[in-house]
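Protein in question quoted in full.
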Amino acid sequence: MTDKQNKTVAIINSQAPFSSPAGKDALDTALIFGSYEQNIALFFMGDGVYQLTDRQNPELISQKNYLKTFSAFEFYDIEQVYVCAQSLKDRGLIGQFHIENTTVLEPAQFAQTLAGFQVIFRF
């Protein structure tokens, strides 16, 4: 028998929540990989950083609030969550998120960390 090693998987969230299904698709993908105990990390950049902000009310635009599901990360062993500091700064956001254990990285370190993953999905 050969010893198969799981690939490391990065999921990039680059779109604002509720403007398209991309954010929910990224979340669903993360939970699927997490349920199979894959080494997975989420990266938030560009408008994707808006997915991390508190006090959103998607019901006002007739959308379901998939952002609440981020709290399930601990049950799926999803512990690596990275945010681009420049994306936060460009949008006037501060580093208070509804996801625990979020690491804010400067652009160079963000790119370097992302480059360490074998498989990358971008949403």
Q: What stands out?
A: The mean pLDDT is 87. The longest strand covers residues 8-13.
